[in-house]
Amino acid sequence: MKILVINAGSSSLKYQLIDMETTTALAKGNCDRIGLDGVFKHKTDRADIKKEVPMKTHADAIKTVIGALTDPEIGCISDLSEIKAIGHRIVSGGDIFNQSVLVTEEVIEGIDKCCELAPLHNPAHLIGIRACIEVMGDVPQVVVFDTAFHSTMPPKAYMYALPYKYYEQYKVRRYGAHGTSHKYVSLRAAAMLGKRPEELKIVTCHLGNGSSISAVDRGVCIDTSMGFTPLAGLMMGTRCGDIDPAVVTYLMEKENIPPKEFNRIMNKESGILAISGVSSDFRDIDNAIEEGNPRAKIALDMFEYQVTKFIGAYAAAMGGLDAIVFTAGVGENNPDLRVRCCAPLKFMGVEMDEEKNRVRGEERIVSSENSKIKVLVVPTNEELMIAADTEAIVSAL
Ligand code: ADP
Q1: In 10 A of CB 278, how many CB atoms?
Q2: In ligand 1, which atom is closest to the CA atom of 211?
Q3: Ligand 1, residues 278, 334, 340: which to mutate, most atoms within 8 A of Cβ?
Q4: Phi/psi of residue 228, each to 5°?
Q5: Which of 209, 273, 285, 307 for mutating ligand 1's site (highest number of atoms within 8 Å of CB)?
Q6: Minimal-distance CA residue to ligand 1 atom 23
Q7: Cα of 65 to ligand 1 centre, how many Å?
Q8: Tens of pLDDT along 3-15?
Q9: For atom 2 of ligand 1, which residue has the closest CA?
Q10: Residues with CB under 6 A from ligand 1
Q11: Is 179 within 8 Å of 147 (Cβ atoms)?
Q12: CA of 273 to the centre of ligand 1 (A)
């Protein structure tokens, strides 16, 4: 089955056409600057193009994608009818959706209700869904939520110790993010270890520009580091992660900073960027450390320390640990960082194989033969996970 996976943003639309028989992407690309001028990128085995294409709306963008996919020269299918389903990435399903579902008017309403929890993303996803209905007619569409994998967390993990009315009135609680990635890499890790997910306690570390860590206990997520928003948990490229909440009101008062502005500072001007004073990109941090920049070193030390702490905490929360998985830009591509994050966990039985660990962006077990807890690198593939959920739902129709 061929499935079109869509990730719609407010002025962009990323896509992949995935063949589920081979689990490979036949084409992938991006429509950018929708509503402005329009830039179209498209890549297949035979083509790799970037050109300006006027796209006033998301429907124009979908038409551009379909045109490219069915084009005799740059395309990879001969007819639109080969696309059997569409899978959409949705950032927040709030507490309404705990699994992927077929798109109906009721589902669209539900996603709309979650807009407050993901104001930058959910409205754009809805525009993407409506554009697909307009252009693709009744091709079945499925929505896959970033929050769904975390919906199994128990109240003790998702509640905040604030007045209960804020939970009741505004649904303020931990939701987590990156769920599709955590689910994918935990399933892959089980397969690589030759076990069923139900047999394993896994900590999945999604370390990229945005980072989160999850505790996956026998296939079920029981805790995750991101919270009500993706600002919580680990410090990140430009996000502060967990801090004493009293610091927020203290600084807002001291410097007379309005809430919106302070939110921006915590999201865009904090994290690795703020501490290093150099960059939010881990490659730049490595270079700065080599040049002897002490603040870059503190930034990296802080990040690695926090990763180690979360792994330890989640091992305790699960009452044991069988595997640690590293994924996303940093997790997949930074062998030295993996070693440093795991080194303090030697007492628990984590032992890296330095030779095997010298790997970037490739699935591999990187712990030693004797390591009690296995360490794995698994490149994330959220699109494939979305396509897999979409196929499962559409096949059952
Ligand atoms: P996002 O959260 O935006 O999806 P990514 O998962 O792409 O982010 O991660 C971006 C981070 O990954 C950057 O800090 C970058 O330094 C790091 N990274 C990406 N590729 C490499 C690489 N080949 N070597 C080392 N670090 C890398």
Answers
A1: 18
A2: 2
A3: 334
A4: -60, -35
A5: 209
A6: 333
A7: 27
A8: 999 999 989 999 9
A9: 209
A10: 208-210, 237, 281-283, 328-330, 333-334, 360
A11: yes
A12: 14
Whether the predicted pLDDT of 91 surpasses 90: yes
Tens-digit pLDDT profile for residues 99-131: 999 999 999 999 999 998 888 899 999 999 999
In ligand 1, the atom with minimum distance to the C-alpha of 281 is: 14
CA of 261 to the centre of ligand 1 (A): 27
pLDDT above 90 as % of the chain: 98
- Of 32, 60, 146, 389, the catalytic one is 146
Taking the chain, what is the end-to-end CA distance rounded to the nearest angstrom? 14
Nearest atom in ligand 1 to the alpha carbon of residue 272 is 14
- Supply 287's token pair: 């270079």
C-beta of residue 380 within 8 angstroms of C-beta of residue 185: yes
pTM over 0.85: yes
Say how many Å lie between the CA of residue 360 and the centre of ligand 1.
11
Cα atoms found within 13 Å of the Cα of residue 256, Cβ hemisphere only = 0
Indicate which residue's Cα is closest to atom 18 of ligand 1.
329
Question: Taking a C-beta distance cutoff of 8 angstroms, is the pair 139, 83 a contact?
Answer: yes
- Return all residues near 248 (Cβ < 8 A) that are at least 6 apart: 262, 266
- Indicate if 146 belongs to the active site: yes
* Residue 367 predicted with pLDDT over 90: yes
Closest CA to 203 of 345, 301, 384: 345
Q: How far is the CA of 210 from the centre of ligand 1 (A)?
A: 9
Which tokens belong to 278?
Answer: 């150099």
How many Å is the Cα radius of gyration of the chain? 22
Kindly give, in sequence order, each residue whose CB lies less than 8 Å from that of residue 70, ignoring residues fewer than 6 positions away: 77, 78, 79, 80
